[in-house]
Predict the structure.
Amino acid sequence: MGPKQVETVPGLVSRELDLESRGWLESLRGSSVERSPALERLHELLRRAAYAEAARRRHLYPEVDGVELDDICQQAAADAVVAVTAKLDGYRGASRFTTWAYGFAVLELSVKLRRHAWRGGSIPTADDDATWDRLAGGSGAAQARVESGELLAALRRAVAEELSPRQREVFVAVALNDVEIDVVAGQLESTRGAVYKVLHDARRKLRLRLEREGHLEEAVAR
Amino acid sequence: MNERDPLTRLLGVAGEDAGCEGGMVLLAEYVEAELAGRDTIVLFPAVAAHLRNCPACVEDYRGLLALARAQDE
C-alpha cells in the first residue's frame, strides 16, 4: 500500500502527498459530516496501533497485562487522536499520514506504559559508592574504559562539582540508575523532551570537564 | 541502534542532537526513509544522534518502524 499518485499541496514548502494521506487531511479538516467518521477511523487506526505496540513491548513490561493493559491502550489511542488533531498543521506531508499518526500512538503508549510499570516506585537519587561501584561490574572493551578507576573517579567529581542540582538529579536517575526518562518526567511534572534537555546539558558539561582533564582524549570525541 | 556501551550510556555521544521533540517531528520520515533503503544517518544526522543518546526514543523508533513496515505487508 505505497503512495500511488502524488500531488503537490500548497504550503510553506513544496510537498508531495499520496492520495490516501490527502484524503485523511481533507476529511479531518472538513465539515462535521466528513470529520466525524474520519475521527472514528482515526481512533480505530490508532487503537490498533496502540495494541500492536503494547504487544511488541510485552517482554519489557510482562507484569502489565489484562484489564490494566487494555485501559492503557484505550487511553493511549484516545490521547493520540487528540494529539493528531491538535497538531494537524504540523504534518509536513513528507511521510504518509498514517505513519505520522502512528508516531503519536507509540509515544502515548510508551509514556503511559512506562509510568504505569513504575507506579509506586521511588526514583533513585543515590550518588553513592554502591551506585558507582555497579558501573565497574561489566565486561568487554567498552566496559574496560569505564571501569578505569581514574575515569570513574573523575566523572564522579565532575557530577558533584559541575552540575546544577536539577542536572545532578536527572543525571543520577536516568544515566546512573537507568530510570526511564518518562518516569522522571512524570515525577518532575515535566515532559520527556524537557528532561532530556537537562540530561543533554549535564552530559555536555561532564564531557567538557573530562576532556579538560585529559580523560576523554581517546574515549569520546567531542 | 545497538546496545550502548557504558560510557555512551553515561555521557551520550557529542554533536548535534535533535532532542526528543525534534526527533519526534521527523521520526515518521526517518522510518520511511529507512524502509526505502535510504541512508538515514546522512539524511537525518541529528535524529540519528538522538537515537543513540535516548533509550526512550529509540524504543519508540522501533515501534514506529514495526508499524510502518506492517502497513506495507
Summary: The interface with chain A takes residues 5-14, 17, 19-21, 24-25, 27-29, 31-32, 53-57, 59-60, 62-64, 66-68, 70-72 of chain B (CB under 8 Å). Residues 42 and 63 of chain B are 22 Å apart (CA to CA). The two ends of chain B are 24 Å apart (CA to CA). Chain B has five helices and no strands.
